[in-house]
Amino acid sequence: MFKKIPVFALLVTAVFACNNPSSTTSDSTEPAANETPVINYSVVNVYPHDTTAYTEGFMVHDGQLFESTGYTEESPSSRSLFGAVDLKTGKIQTKVEIDKKKYFGEGITYLNGKWYQLTYTTKVGFVYDGKTFKQIGQFTFPSEQGWGMTNDGTYLLMSDGTSNISYLDPNNFKLIKILGVTDNNGPVNNINDLELINGFIYANQWQTNYILKIDPASGKVVGKLDLTSLVNEAKNKYPDSDTLNGIAYDSVSKKIYVTGKLWPNIYEIKFNL
Question: What is the pTM assigned to this prediction?
Answer without folding.
Answer: 0.88
